[in-house]
């Protein structure tokens, strides 16, 4: 069976309006590795990652709630966030959807587009919608949890 794909057309009234992006699911091993690295980074940042979630890869991140990633240091979060965008290609001419290419720096001109693309990639992998960005929706505080699971902070320290 082929990997899942999704198309995202930017409809916001900004410089990226009308741009079409193709999102492609990571391989199972890549998604598992990404999730494991995210969970290990969370543990090293002091998050209490339950034992039954530690080896669950990307699904484990979903069980804890995507907002858990907000507790990471930039140096730990950036590679994970950048890697999510490797699942995205641009369709330079939406009238020719079969022509696509990997992203280059100037393809995305708005920060909000980057946020939307990352959210859409996570939704593609997880199979359910990630809550809207609270800054966009006017809500304050952290994003709501995606699934059951409580995140508590413990003192930072190395994995045992």
Question: What attributes does this structure have?
Answer:
about 160 residues, alpha+beta, 4 strands
Q: Short summary of the structure?
A:
38% of the residues lie in helices and 10% in strands. The protein is α+β, with helices and mostly antiparallel strands.
The SSE string, one letter per element, is EEHHHHEEHH
Give the DSSP E fraction (strand runs of 2 or more residues). Answer: 5-15%
Compute the number of structural domains.
1
How many DSSP H or I helices? 6
Q: Describe it for me?
A:
With 160 residues, this protein is an alpha+beta fold. It has one domain (5-129). The protein contains 6 helices and 4 strands; from the N terminus they run ββααααββαα. It has a 4-stranded antiparallel sheet with strand order 1-2-3-4, with helices on one face. Helix 1 runs antiparallel to helix 4 (74-84). It starts with a strand and ends in a 23-residue tail after the last helix.
Topology summary:
Layout: E1 5-9, E2 20-24, H1 28-44, H2 51-54, H3 57-64, H4 74-84, E3 88-91, E4 101-102, H5 111-126, H6 134-137
Antiparallel strand pairs: 1-2, 2-3, 3-4
Helix pairs in contact: 1-3, 1-4
